[in-house]
Amino acid sequence: MPTPVSTNQRYSRFEDQQLTPRTPHSRAGRAEEAFTAAELEQVHFDDDDDYNSIIQQQNAPLLASSASDSFPPPRQVGYRSRGDDYEERMAAAAAASKRKLMDKIMARLPLAVYSSVAAVLLVLVVVSLREPEVLKQYVGVPVANGTASAAVASASVGVAVDLESAPASAPAPSATGAPAPSHVHGGSVPNGITRISYENYTTFPLDPIEYRAQCIEVTPPVMIMHPYWLPHELMDTVHVDEQPGYALKDGEAPICNRTITYQLDGWAGLLVDLGLIAQFAALAKERSATFFVDDRYWNRGKWTDHFENIAVGPEPDCRPPRPEEYVACPRSARHWIVNSRTARYHLGHMFAETYEDPYGHNLNRAKPIYDRAAQALETLIIPNNKSVELIGWAREEMQGVIDKHYQHGEDRRRSFKDMPQDSEYEFRTQGYIGTHIRRGDQLRSWHGASDDYVPIQDYVDGVVSAWTRLDLELSKNDTMVTPVVYVASDSPAAMQEFSASFDLEQVFSLTASKRAELRELASPRDYDQNEFMTLPEDVRVKATRGMVVDFALLSGAWAKPGELIPDATVCGLSSMICKFSAVALGWNRAFGEVEYMGYLDKQNSRWVEVDNQGRVVPIWNAFTAP
């Protein structure tokens, strides 16, 4: 039989005590009168075991001894009595409640202040976007024409006139619609236009870094959305042909009405310069400006050592302005000069917003900028006679390598030459893949990789997969031959490692040329821009010529109908050579049939990027400054 539960020992202390049930409205000694709210707050102000607490309900018995801690102090217990210290306790309770309220207010005060400041800033942002000149008035900045609305209206009209109706023979209007500024020492300055003074300089044109400093000075630290050709502030410098009494000498050509000059500064690689020239030449055409290239600070010889002279525009017989009249920022100046150091101030977010296709997706969004670069490469950036000769020699040797390994190679080449000029096969290829491997000071673009450079094996895999995917020519025994490759690299070690993965007789480069004049153009070491600037001039000129030849063989650039171009180009996006190769290949050959959503045609694309490998969308984007 189970042993009966005995409570004699456990509850012996209650034998002589009268138990009173504990409820929310009754306490020992107060069966008929509950505590007031203030008294309860005072009693349990710091009590973590309040009756409503889950912990209290689990740990404190419903019935407890009057000696227990759950009971209030004896002086607070009385039948129908509040006690002698009631007023003191009530005052203390009120003070505690007030302190608690103030603590809450102080804790939430910073949030309220920050919210108020954010609201004020939001209002200022809205005002600055919609009525920027009104905001300038409030802060004390002078506004042209007396009112903010008049300044904004005149600026809008000025841009339209400049782009669409400015006569070629008349001085270009400024962004306010007024005549272009006349800035000479002691000369007058039109209202609302700030004078740019070069009185502290003695050598012109300025050094590229000095032009960059000018852009830093006039560019607001916080960029505000505004039309691309409408500056934050109207600024320009002295124009000698606008001064009273100016007259042309007999037989002297007039100064161009408006110009854009690209300054070759030596601070960037050759293909960076070519990509930027392509973009700014397109802007010059849009602005009805004459485009020039200035090579006074170039460290690769003269522009005409490698390419034909560029001077195109609506006034073919005009001459460039004095170097003292060039302005780097703002771009709305009459004679705008730009280089690789200042391009970032002009090819940023607002450039993309203005010139990308706003309705396009992915690759299609950048199509307008791509087309502008392609047109400039075809019509403006033309190799000179010496470069054409070197490129021809290299293509001739590459053709010999191809003919050695292809069935009926001569017949195929002749049939492609006979294709109609407008045929889509006008540049039908002969069966080789161009590969560019960048090392030196240019690390890979994909930051998720552990390697500083794209592994050589990725280039090898890119060549093999493209060769197979494009179903290139079969050999005489009807089996796929190993790829025929033209390889270019700034690193002799990388080129040697890559070539070892293929039949050496099917890999061609400048290093392997039979002509000494081509071999001496090959890069002897990994390219580092800072080191390159210290080399002797003749070495830099040869390296630049080698890059021109390499780019032509890698991408098919500057090929005439029927001439040899590659089936595909394998490269890494961190190099500008890779990005510009997509332009030289042509949109459809580079990306295939790009569909509406702008995705690459993986089956037919001939531009093979092995760095990001499609992990970044879009796979190709517009040119950016270094």
Keywords:
single chain, 626 residues, alpha/beta, 3 domains, 5-stranded parallel β-sheet, 18 helices, globular
Could you characterize the architecture of this molecule?
- The protein has 626 residues and is α/β, with parallel strands linked by helices.
- It has three domains: 17-84, no CATH class; 174-355, no CATH class; 382-609, no CATH class.
- The chain is built from 18 helices and eleven strands.
- Helix 1 (37-43) packs across helix 3 (86-130), helix 3 (86-130) packs across helix 4 (132-138) and helix 4 (132-138) runs antiparallel to helix 5.
Report a brief summary of the structure.
With 626 residues, this protein is an alpha/beta fold.
- Side-by-side strand order of the widest sheet: 9-8-7-10-11
Q: Mean pLDDT, nearest integer?
A: 78
Q: How many strands appear in the DSSP assignment? A: 11
Sequence stretches where pLDDT stays below 50 over 5 or more residues: 5-17, 24-35, 37-41, 43-68, 75-80, 140-189, 408-428
Shape: globular
- Sequence of secondary-structure elements: HHHHHEHEEHEEEHHHHEHEHEHHHEHHE
Tally of separate helices = 18
| Helicity, as a percent range | 25-40%
* Helix/strand class: alpha/beta
Summed up, the domain count is 3
Main β-sheet description: 5 strands, parallel
First and last CA, distance: 95 Å
